[in-house]
Amino acid sequence: MISYDLPIRTEYDLLKLRPIFFVLGALLLIVAGIVLLPATYIWLEGNESSVNLNAFLLTSLIALAAGLPLLIVNRSANFHLVPRQMYLLTVASWLIINIFCALPFILSSIELRLVDAVFETVSGTTTTGSTILTDIDLLPRSIMIWRAMLQWLGGIGIIVMVVAIMSHLRVGGMRLFRSEASDKSEKFTSRTKNIARSIGAVYLALSLLCTGAYKLGGMGWFNAVLHAMTTISTGGYSTSDLSLQQFASSNILWISCVFMYLSGLPFVLLVQATRGHGAALFRDQQVRGYTYFVFLCVLVLSAWLAMFYDMPVLEALSLGAFTSISIITTTGYTTIDYNLWGGLAVGGLFFLTFTGACAGSTAGGIKMFRFQIATTMLRNQLNSMLHPRGAFPNFYNGRSVSDEIVTSVIAFSFVFLGTVAVLAVALSLTGLDLITSLSGAVTSVANVGPGFGDIIGPVGSFSPLPDSAKWLLVTGMILGRLEILTVLVIFTAGFWRG
After folding, report:
1. Do 451 and 439 touch, CB atoms closer than 8 A?
2. Which of 148, 164, 234, 150 is nearest to 199 (CA)?
3. CA–CA separation, 451 vs 442, rounded Å?
4. If 0-12 CB within 10 Å is exposed, 13-18 middle and 19+ buried, where does residue 461 land?
């Protein structure tokens, strides 16, 4: 059993890495198990190449051979993970899992190169949705299933990690939501096991509801299941190069809008809502701000399309809602090349890639609560300039915001923008144009998916990019998904000193 209780003593002994190795071994055994699901599909259908079946079976054996010794050698009755071990475990687990999960792409009949396989895998597990694949419609169905599974599992993984672990470690301001993560009347404690179980149940329920809705909207079962997995995870992988444009029915777009919006809500509050505490969801300042912001963006973009592109009102509303929500929640589904909508629309959509939805959701980006706290700080600063003797404390959700939270928000926002800037410059040095470099940097760190321009735009692909650019984008996706500071802290000198 692993305990996440934080002891008072925080000295870090580099020789005591057994808890990390133990958890990595357990995760590899999980990978060995889930990779058998596409193999089972191939075996049951019997209409795919044996190469693909062997690829998944071999991946399972490799993961089993790597994970079982780690689990056995490092097993212990009880582990207490200190903060530094948690940081190292979080980063190491995401790196190792992605390496092993890339094997089916390399060993299967599509025979991706290492850089392409890692790019596709990382884009899946981080729920970014960028792809190097073309002719997706012609892919083996087992590979389509594997891509959707990567995003679905990546979505639930990041939620549990952020809410159950990062809230304790004060990463990116998630400590702000610890009170929402504790319902004392229902004994909903912050213990990892309870949080994981409750969130997993809601996550699965939303996935099943989304599957049923897609089926009723006109999708076949195969497409309904896979698109539900990539919708709830706000990942955006599809079974076609056309993304959701392959489904002519506008009902599909509205169904997608509803479930993308729901997946952008804090899952801890969704858990409380299922327990009869729905008022906590509607009273939450972040949820209200997210809802108002989505409504405003949908209204503005729909009006722009209706007035300047002579679209029928319902069509403009459908496209405006779908595109806005897809980008705000960092899902990345597309139906049309929005590069053709004019400078104002494209510029607005570009800035939407920074925002993200709510903290504690499957979405990436900066997150809504950071913008709200920054707005409060700006208002108080202006008030203090007008009234120098006045006191203007920062409040959020009716509670005073500590200096610790303010500092974490400022630090994360600064590092986020700095990472985008550095990554954009590095991409430009690989020979990419300004639009591709800048939008590629933003879409990778914010985990959105498609970028802007002719190459990586909504109807493009990341396949033409040079290998160096792909590795840079892989780095950006992992940094963005782990909220950057989690990764950067292990590269500081103080991290490795006791």
Report:
1. yes
2. 164
3. 8
4. middle
Encoded amino acid at 331, one letter: T
pLDDT tens digit string along 158-217? 666 555 544 444 444 344 343 333 333 333 334 556 777 788 889 999 999 999 999 999
Q: Is the dihedral of CA 435, 441, 442, 443 positive or negative?
A: positive
475 class by beta-carbon count within 10 Å (0-12 exposed, 13-18 middle, 19+ buried): middle
First to last CA, the chain: 26
pLDDT band at 10 (very low <50, low <70, confident <90, very high): very low
Neighbours of 77 (CB within 10 A): 5
Q: Which two tokens stand for residue 371?
A: 């913008």
Q: Which of 30, 16, 24 is nearest to 85 (CA)?
A: 16
pLDDT single digits (tens) 156-170:
876 665 555 444 444
Residue 79 confidence class, pLDDT cut points 50, 70, 90: low
State the pTM of this model: 0.89
CB 397 within 8 A of CB 359: no
Residue at 366: amino acid letter: I
Instruction: Sort strands 79-80 and 2-3 into parallel, antiparallel or unpaired.
Output: parallel
The predicted structure's pLDDT at residue 304 = 94
Place of tokens 């985990």: 447
- Mean pLDDT over 145-154 rounds to 95
Residue by residue, what is the 3-state secondary structure of the chain?
Answer: CEECCCCCCCCCCCCCCHHHHHHHHHHHHHHHHHCHHHHHHHHHHCCCCHHHHHHHHHHHHHHHHHHHHHHHHCCCCCEECCHHHHHHHHHHHHHHHHHHHCHHHHHCCCCCCHHHHHHHHHHHHCCCCCCCCCCHHHCCHHHHHHHHHHHHHHHHHHHHHHHHHHHHHCCCCHHHHCCCCCEHHHCECCCHHHHHHHHHHHHHHHHHHHHHHHHHHCCCHHHHHHHHHHHHCCCCCCCCCCHHHHCCCHHHHHHHHHHHHHHCCCHHHHHHHHCCCHHHHHHCHHHHHHHHHHHHHHHHHHHHHHHHCCCCHHHHHHHHHHHHHHHHCCCCCCCCCHHHCCHHHHHHHHHHHHHCCCCCCCCCCCCHHHHHHHHHHHHHHHHHHHCCCCCCCCEECCEECCHHHHHHHHHHHHHHHHHHHHHHHHHHCCCCCHHHHHHHHHHHHCCCCCCCCCCCCCCCCCCCCCHHHHHHHHHHHHHHHCCCHHHHHHHCHHHHCC
Arithmetic mean of pLDDT, 289-306: 96
